[in-house]
Amino acid sequence: MSTTVSVVLPYFNRADSLREAALSVLGQTHRDLVLLLVDDGSTDGSRDVAASLVDERIRHIDLPQNVGVCAARNAGLDAATTELVAFMDSDDVWLPHKLERQIAALRDRQAAGERLGVLGCGWHFQGQGASRTFAPGPFTRRELLRPVSGTGTPMLLVDRAVAAPDARFDASFPALVERDFILSCLSNGSMLGVLPEVLVTVNRGRDDHVANPQASPRAWELYITKYAADLAQDPELSSWYHFRAGREYLVARRPRGAAPHVSPALRRQGGRRAVHLLLGSVAGVKGLAVAQKTMPL
Question: What's the number of domains the chain is made of?
Answer without folding.
Answer: 2
